[in-house]
Amino acid sequence: MATRPFAFFLFFLFSIVTLTVYILTAHIYDHQPFLRSSPNSLFLKPQDKIWPEFEFNWRLLLATVIGFFGSAFGTVGGVGGGGIFVPMLTLIVGFDTKSAAALSKCMIMGASASSVWYNLRVQHPCREVPILDYDLALLFQPMLMLGITLGVALSVVFPYWLITVLTILLFSGTSIRSFFKAIEMWKEETKVKKELERPRAFVNSRGELLIDAHEPLILKEEKTPTQIFLFNLCWKMLTALIVVWLAFLVLQIIKNGLIVCSTSYWVVTIIQFPVALAVFGYECVKLYKESKKRRDAGNPESVCEAAIDWTAPQLMFCAFCGVLGGTVGGLLGSGGGFILGPLLLEIGVLPQVASATATFVMMFSSSLSVVEFYLLKRFPIPHALYLMAVSIMAGFWGQFFIRRLVAFLQRASLIVFILSAVIFASALTMGVIGVDKSIKMINNHEFMGFLEFCRSQ
What we know:
Elements: H1 3-31, H2 39-42, H3 58-77, H4 82-93, H5 97-119, H6 134-157, H7 160-197, E1 200-203, E2 209-212, H8 225-232, H9 235-256, H10 263-296, H11 312-332, H12 337-346, H13 351-375, H14 381-409, H15 413-443
Antiparallel strand pairs: 1-2
Helix pairs in contact: 1-7, 3-4, 3-5, 3-14, 3-15, 4-5, 4-15, 5-13, 5-14, 6-9, 6-10, 6-11, 6-13, 7-12, 7-15, 9-10, 9-13, 11-12, 12-13
């Protein structure tokens, strides 16, 4: 798999950067105790809620425009757009970072839900199968949610400037990778279009050479929107996804009511691991057995949309990427689509299916966060309802226009170009804000090292 060395390179780079920073900061602050001052000023310095009044002014109007296009392109690319929403809500509307991250999840949930509704009424571009790949969704969803739990914990411990560095590295890398992937797809599409436009010669039964400018079309059976909708729904797999979602939701609600770092708190946290691994393991065994059965029978058809053989190393790699995507989402409050979207493309999933499936998975992960943030009262209801309404409309119309454009131009690579552009824009906006905030922290002589998890809650 071409993306495997790239992903492991990013992980190795992250590990080296994190370890180096930890050693250096520990050495500096151990030898300069005055930098630690008091725990209240450093570790337990809470950021007050900054909730602007809900009123229609130029700030909200500008946020509406940016939010609309961010949601439209973010859902089409299958990355959500959280990397754009958080800077927009902090810089333009004026929310604090934590409230902005919570509202960002609301926007991602709204856009994802409307996109899923639209995609359920769309046929698969090539095969007689649902456009949503439920096997891949069930494979990645539990690991993504597990990664979000880890990412939220790391966001408490990691210094803000380190999160900024990791964000720039990851988003820049995936954006560049996706861009070159889009160029490769564009070239392949150009070759196919030229081949189809070229006159073809064939010989009839009498041995006469005939020239035909067009290949006969195989017409698909026309289906009504209701038939397509019902065909795209797989109730068995959908029920399994909802059960996993409910299990994590219950565990998160219980954990939020416990004292941080108490015995019961750690027990509930650890329980999430066997829950995620059990669902992931079940889907792994299913894909492995079916893939092996088809290989032994000489059947080249893939088990699901991914054009790979589901061997043990491939499954472990997918688990790693799922956890990595969730961790990034938990660190930044942006959802795991920035990893999942490009990953689905790298393992051979068609752009239309990759976009629909990634958005489908993000709908579950973002809605889990929204329910949790609502119970914690982390966002104002008026802003949340308004921004969700904007995202719902943007998600639907974004899918509508881009899908029509892809069908008209016969260029599915447009989806990958949009994905790359959204990730790059997120790297740019979050990088600029992160650098600016880090400079202010340095000028204010704030603590810049790793925090202690239990003392920082």
